[in-house]
Every structure is written in structure tokens, then in C-alpha cells.
Task: inverse folding
């Protein structure tokens, strides 16, 4: 599960308009889920940490987070490498 704060950070890092960031965050306010198993269904409970897997946006949000983290590491890596080589 990806925490909502990480999703918010990633969307902003990639330059997503603030109105769209707010719209996505609003979709997850008060989200509730029930877990289905071979033994039956759980009670319905709130999701308070991150995105839920049943959402159609989950693959896109995961890709956004992955891309933002990847960009963060690429910038940090080359900066560190350049500092190490150039002094």
C-alpha cells in the first residue's frame, strides 16, 4: 500500500496540476473496504493510510510514484557522482 502523502508528493513532483492532485486525494477520503476470503467476508473498515487496490486509478498512481522516485534517484545519483569525481 502506498501512503497518500507519497502519492501527493509524487504527483506534485511530476508537475500534475494542483486541482487534479486535490481531486485524486478527495477520492480517497472516507474510503472503505471489505476483505473477501474463502472463509467469508470481513467487516467493512476504513482505509486510512493509502490507496486501495480496487481503484481503477491504482496502476496509474503506482506508475506516477515509481517515476517520481526514479527521477529523484537519478538526480541524486548523478549529483553525488559528479561531486565525487570533480571534488
Result:
Amino acid at each position: 500500500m502506498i501512503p497518500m502523502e507519497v502519492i501527493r508528493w509524487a504527483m506534485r513532483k511530476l508537475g500534475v496540476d494542483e486541482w487534479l492532485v486535490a481531486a485524486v486525494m478527495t477520492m480517497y477520503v472516507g474510503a472503505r473496504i471489505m476483505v473477501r476470503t474463502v472463509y467469508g467476508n470481513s467487516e467493512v473498515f476504513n482505509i486510512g493510510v493509502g490507496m486501495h487496490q480496487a481503484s481503477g486509478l491504482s496502476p496509474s498512481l503506482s506508475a506516477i510514484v515509481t517515476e517520481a522516485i526514479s527521477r529523484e534517484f537519478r538526480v541524486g545519483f548523478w549529483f553525488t557522482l559528479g561531486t565525487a569525481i570533480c571534488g
